[in-house]
Amino acid sequence: MKLEMTGITKSFGPNKVLDNVSLTIDNQEIHALIGENGAGKSTLMKILTGIYTLDSGEILVDDKKVTISNIQDSEKYGIAIVNQELALFNEMTVLENLFMTKEYTHVGGFINTKQQMIHAKEIFKKLNISLNPNAKVGELSVGMQQMLEIAKSLVNDAKLIIMDEPTSALTEREIEALFRVIRKLKENGKSVIYISHRMKEIFELCDGITILRDGKKIIESRVKDISFDDVVRNMVGYEMGDMFPERFSKQKGKQLLKVENLSKQGQFHDINFDLYEGEILGIAGLMGSGRTELMNVIFGAEKHDHGQIYLNGKKEANHSIVNAKKNGLGYVTENRKDEGLFLDFSIKDNILMNNLVRFSRYFFVDQKDASKNTSNYAEKTKLKYRSINQYVSELSGGNQQKVVLSKWLLNNPKILILDEPTRGIDVNAKKQIYEMIFELKRQGIGIIVVSSELVELLGISDRILVMREGQLKQELLNENINDETIMKYMMRN
């Protein structure tokens, strides 16, 4: 399918979010659409899928002008979207999810399960994936749920499939499987719009690329004709220089955390390490290696079966979240939307969440003091917002992450655990978060960074611990090592 969007303009009140944007997708093309959070990508895709109507401009499908006023129009023209947040029902079967609202029926209205099963197997064969139609969706891995979402788009024989951050929660192996499916879609005559912040994926997978900035199209190119530096410069509008601040050595301070023979059945076994003032400790490992589970135990969110945790030289007898916070631990979790934020609360309320007692007088929050302090930390983290009372749900992913950081920084932590701190955020927001991490290091805070991006760990860590299958396999000083060295310990049998 060939798609042309020309002169697309969209405003919400006085705010023009798209200004004369054009996008061209050729038949059987995988095309990257990228830009910082707030650049206009989502609005453009919502116009294409009929969620928003355009103010001006034209949409052409296979050289014919079309009008897309609702989701039904977009489906009629063969356009489907696989959102970052999967829209599946865990208690229902694969087959039931696949044909949700598109059921095949017999005369009389009864569901024709046999015909649905035949069609499902045809779709799975086209995608070269193995899915049990009778399995409950809740039993599937995130990667297989992603495959099911793609399969759903083919029930109505979609010709153009939009994929929004499809790898954000996938393992490396699941990403490889997803790429095989996307390439199979292309072989079968489909076109794909691929939205991602992961540059490596774009250069590995995509044919063309369009970059948006501040609601305008900046450049359109073949991927083979553009460099990583060109992409970054066009996204942010200026030369970014090195992605990471210059690493610096800091004299070893006192021991803040010691983990001794820590074990949790089925998750990790016999873990030993320590953390010092002003140190950035990276944790590498594939998904399922036990990284996040270990952090949950250190923070007191889960109980361990064996071993000891020492905070500031003192043994933790009854370790819990309450005690962890009292001892200066902060934890920016991997899933900020479900575990780190109240999306329907304001920025101020979210930042205050850990400190209500501190800002309360006789059971009432001192609003003046609270506003002053929350605004102060919002400024420190370079948060972009209209008002401190703005709902967090209205913010971009990068700004939501800054709210979580602000919440913990207001608590004056001695130790800060950051699990996937830059997942799903744009390049400029990543750079700002790295700068904040280095500033916290200068202040003597001990920082643990769990990340799937090895380049990130190499760019900021003093030491890197490598986990595999629930065990700590190697400790590496971040000197003269590269991602291949780390991967060797992550993968070695």
What's this entry about, in short?
The protein is α/β, with parallel strands linked by helices and 493 residues long. Helix content is 33%, strand content 25%. The two termini are 45 Å apart.
Question: How do the strands and helices of this protein lay out in sequence?
Answer:
Blueprint: E1 3-12, E2 15-25, E3 30-34, H1 41-48, E4 56-61, E5 64-66, H2 71-76, E6 79-82, H3 94-98, H4 113-127, H5 142-154, E7 160-164, H6 172-187, E8 191-195, H7 199-205, E9 208-213, E10 216-222, H8 228-236, E11 255-264, E12 268-276, E13 280-284, H9 291-299, E14 306-311, E15 314-315, H10 321-326, E16 329-332, H11 336-340, H12 347-352, E17 360-361, E18 364-365, H13 367-380, H14 397-409, E19 415-419, H15 427-442, E20 446-450, H16 454-460, E21 463-468, E22 471-477, H17 483-491
Parallel strand pairs: 3-8, 3-9, 6-7, 7-8, 13-20, 13-21, 16-19, 19-20
Antiparallel strand pairs: 1-2, 1-4, 4-5, 9-10, 11-12, 11-14, 14-15, 17-18, 21-22
What does the model show?
- The protein is α/β, with parallel strands linked by helices.
- It has 2 domains: 234 residues, P-loop containing nucleotide triphosphate hydrolases (Rossmann fold, 3-Layer(aba) Sandwich); 237 residues, 3-Layer(aba) Sandwich (Rossmann fold).
- Strand 11 and strand 12 form a beta hairpin.
- The model has no long low-confidence stretch (mean pLDDT 89).
